[in-house]
Each structure stands twice: as C-alpha cells, then as structure tokens.
Amino acid sequence: MNTAPIRSICCIGAGYVGGPTMAVIADRCPEIQVKVVDLNEARIAAWNDPDLSCLPVYEPGLDAVVGRSRGRNLQFSTDVDRAIATADMVFISVNTPTKTKGLGAGQASDLRWVEACARQVAKCARGHTIVVEKSTLPVRTAEAVKAILEASQLAEAGEQKGPPPSFSVLSNPEFLAEGTAIADLEQPDRVLIGGEDAAAIEALAGIYQQWVPQERILRTNLWSSELSKLTANAFLAQRISSINSVAALCEATGADVREVALAIGTDRRIGSRFLQSGPGFGGSCFKKDILNLVYLCHHFGLPEVAEYWESVVHLNTWQQHRIASLVVRKLFGTVSGKRLAILGFAFKADTNDTREAPAIRIAGDLLEEGAQLAIHDPKVSAEQIARDLNLPASSAPDAEAGPTRAALSGEGTWWPAANITDAVRGADAVLILTEWSQYRQLDWSGIAALMRHPAWVFDARSVVDPATIRSAGLSLWRVGDAG
Ligand code: UDX
Ligand code: UDX
C-alpha cells in the first residue's frame, strides 16, 4: 500500500474538463507538478499562448487561474509518454462520444480513447501509479481499465526488468457545468471518489482537501461513483424535459411557465434550480449520459427503465423541432427566402462550446425550409458554426439589394453576423437561442426600425421584457407563454 503524498500529476485530455480542472488543482496545490497532455498539438499550443484570451476553452475566470500557475507548476504538453512516466497519479479526461456504428450504435459510449489511454499508461508508468477516471464512463468501465493495467503488470513481471509498475484505479467524476466551471471547481457541492484501494482514495482526497471541506468529499465503491455521475445528469436533464413539456401545455392553455416554475420551485422538495424552460438541453454530457444509461438498462434486461429515461431525450428533440416549426407557422407558413436573425449559437451562455447546442437543430430545420440565417454569437467562431450546420457560410447579402439567387431558389443559407445590427437588418424575425447577458439589454425600438414588418421576436430563453418588445411594434413568442 502506497501512502506517499502526490507530488506529480498527469492529465490526459486538455479539453473542457481536463484543462479547467487541472488549472484549479495547480492553483490550489502549488507543491504538486501538474502536466496536462493532449494528442492535439493545436490545442496544446493554444493552452500555451502567452495571450490568455486565446485559451482554447472560454470559461469566465479561467484565464486568471491559468495565468497564476502556468510555467510554475502547470504545464501543457504533447509529450504524453514522459508525463505518464513521471506521474504519481494519472487522470484520464479524454472524450467518450456516443458510438455511431457497431454494437450499441447511437447509445453506447465509444471507449476506444479511454482504452488507448489505459494501454499507454500501462506501457509508460513507472512505480506505483494511481489512475483516475475523470471522463464520464459507462458503469463498470473501471473494470476494463484495471484489466488492461493488470495485464501489463504481469507482462512486465514476466520480463523481470526490476519491480513491475503497480496500479490503483479510482473513479472521480466531474460535476462542473460549463460557464461556471471555475466556481464549480473551487466550491463544489461535493467531490465523489469511488474505489477499492483506501490509500489511493485518501491520496486523491488529500489533494481536494487543500480547498474542499472534508464533509463534501464522498467516498463510494467504484460502481456507485460511475453510476452516480450518469444518474445526476439524467436527473438534471429530466427536470428540463419536464418543464419543457409543461411549457408546451402553458402555451396551449394560457398559463405562464415562469409562474408555474416559481410556484413549484418554492416547494423545498422540488427546489427552484434547473426549472428554466428553453430550447432544450445541449452540451456534451446530458444526451450522451442518458443514452448510456438507456444502453445499460437494455443490457441488464430492464427495457421499461430504458424507455423511461429515453423519453427524456425524445422530449428534448421534440422541443427543438417544435420551436423551428412554430417559427415557420407564425411567419405565414413559410420562411423560404426570408431573413432570420439567430442570436446565440452556444449551448448555453458563457461558453464557446456548441456540442449538442439546440441552435444546431433549430437552425438546421429552418435551413431545410429555405431560410436565410444571419447568425450571431459572441464566442462561437464562424468555422465552428459551419462544421455544426454542415454548410459553409455564404457572404452576407446586401440588405438594400433584392433577394439573392439562393433566396429566390429556396435554398437555405447562413452567414456570420459581426454584430447585432448586421444580424437584424432586413430580418423578418429574431430568434434568441442562447441567454448571453448582452441579449437582455437590446435596444428593441432601434432593432424594430431595421427589420422588415410584420416582424417577430422568438425568445426561447425568456430574456426579453414582453412590454418593451410590444411597444417597439414587434410580435412576440416566448417559450411557455400563450402571448
Ligand atoms: C470529456 C468527455 O467528453 C466527458 O465525457 C468527460 O466527462 C470529460 O472529458 P471534454 O473535456 O469536454 O469532456 O472533452 P473534449 O473537450 O473533447 O476534450 C478531450 C480531449 O482529449 C481532446 O482535446 C482530445 O484531443 C484529447 N484526447 C483524446 C487525447 O489527448 N488522447 C486521446 O486518445 C483522445
Ligand atoms: C452538465 C451538468 O450540470 C454537470 O454537472 C456535468 O458535469 C456536465 O453536464 P453542462 O452541460 O456544462 O453541465 O451545463 P448545464 O448548466 O447543466 O446546462 C446543460 C443544458 O441544459 C444547457 O443547454 C442549458 O441551457 C440547459 N438548461 C439548464 C435548461 O434548459 N434549463 C435549466 O434550467 C438549466
């Protein structure tokens, strides 16, 4: 049993989870050397950019945290083998996307990168190494990681090259939400550590204890830890689908979903958070984790449980298609050739992440209908939007000139709008799809003067003041509001 304190950490995967998590550990534990490694050279170069506004992940407060420790005890590198060899503890924080083909396609997680990392750790580790699963994984993945590590231990012992490396595997799921990652890491509701090796658990707990109160560090067995992460995300996503289902009912009956959310949220058994109706949940985790749960339930012969959770994802997809089709309906049944301004493309505010963003499906449906979309987002690049929509950007049309050839032929096109004025000029409608704070303070009478009338505002995030919109002479649809 190894009880020495951790002096050196390696994290494989410099993404939205690995980067901020390691930056906070390095900031809070100056005596620990933290190396974040990634196969992606461009990503590592961006983490090393002297200009802290160029970090590959946009996250409020991250630049300050990285600025304090980079070059001191925080390093970003592509030398994965060396970082593993010198580490007492290796975090695996690589992506685990949903499989697109083969067994479990569309539901199960693709574990090929996690497996590759385990093999690389097995090959390069020296001495006793604690391997920590940070990536969200299906239950019992730790078993596979352990099997790979143990096989290498046996092989090394067979070759008799001195003492073989030894390993302990822990599960330490991440609960940070993008946009608030730094605060979530600095003041977590809880830290969860699952494992069997008490000394390894205490070594990891010792790191978090530098800034997290002891009672917030929960210790469980490996499988409980892995399943807790999937369950936490499934519960959170389920609340959003529940409130979005009620939003549709509110629109039909004359109730207001914000009032309903307030009324039910004051019941302490329900609680007020995560009851914001919107264009459906996005992000890299919710859908993937629920589908993982669905796959596991089928695997363990529980089809009713699988169906229960799958309906959370179905409702979410339905909400996104519902919003796109109501836009078409309100605009006299056609958006072909019409200019629409999309405000917000990220899956939530304060992030540049677009994975599973509701805007992708909603914009995709409108493009299908032949719309001409001007897309604005303060942090998402035009290249990213083009990848997500699977459609290159067109050049912005001249608002004074007549319809473009594409518009006349009914072909959907989009272009990036540098600012809100450019986005709304000549538009028949504005759709707010991300709750960026700047969209809460828009000059609606100025915007109305630039639009083609009758003009609509579709507020999927409840950020506008209805009276202001109406007094600017605009028609308004707000999620969960009969109007
Ligand atoms: C990832 C997982 O998607 C999520 O399930 C988990 O909870 C945390 O890790 P995230 O950090 O948001 O989330 O993913 P991403 O931003 O894609 O970062 C993963 C990084 O790992 C990428 O930069 C990728 O280049 C890197 N990687 C992947 C490796 O360095 N080696 C590999 O073998 C595979
Ligand atoms: C989520 C979990 O919150 C986090 O604990 C886990 O580690 C990773 O997955 P994240 O996806 O980054 O984090 O953001 P989150 O704030 O949970 O938002 C997810 C989606 O739900 C966003 O699209 C957001 O707009 C939406 N949402 C959230 C709502 O529609 N309504 C709400 O009330 C809250």
Question: What can you see in these coordinates?
Answer:
With 483 residues, the chain is of the alpha/beta class. 43% of the residues lie in helices and 13% in strands. It has 18 helices and 14 strands. Helix 1 links the parallel strand 1 (8-12) and strand 2. The N and C termini lie far apart (66 Å). The model has no long low-confidence stretch (mean pLDDT 94). One uridine-5'-diphosphate-xylopyranose binds at residues 12-18, 38-40, 43, 93-96, 113, 116-117, 134-136, 174, 284. One uridine-5'-diphosphate-xylopyranose (UDX) binds next to helix 5.
Layout of helices and strands:
Blueprint (H helix, E strand, L loop, with lengths): L7 E5 L5 H11 L4 E5 L3 H7 L14 H8 L4 E4 L2 H6 L3 E4 L19 H13 L3 E6 L7 H19 L6 E6 L9 H6 L4 E5 L2 H11 L8 E4 L1 H32 L3 H9 L20 H14 L3 H28 L8 E5 L14 H11 L3 E5 L5 H8 L15 H5 L3 E4 L3 H5 L4 E4 L11 H7 L5 E4 L6 H6 L3 E4 L5
Parallel strand pairs: 1-2, 1-4, 2-3, 4-5, 5-6, 7-8, 9-10, 9-12, 10-11, 12-13, 13-14
Antiparallel strand pairs: 6-7
Helix pairs in contact: 1-3, 5-6, 9-11, 9-12, 11-12, 12-13
The site of one uridine-5'-diphosphate-xylopyranose (UDX) has 23 residues, from α5.
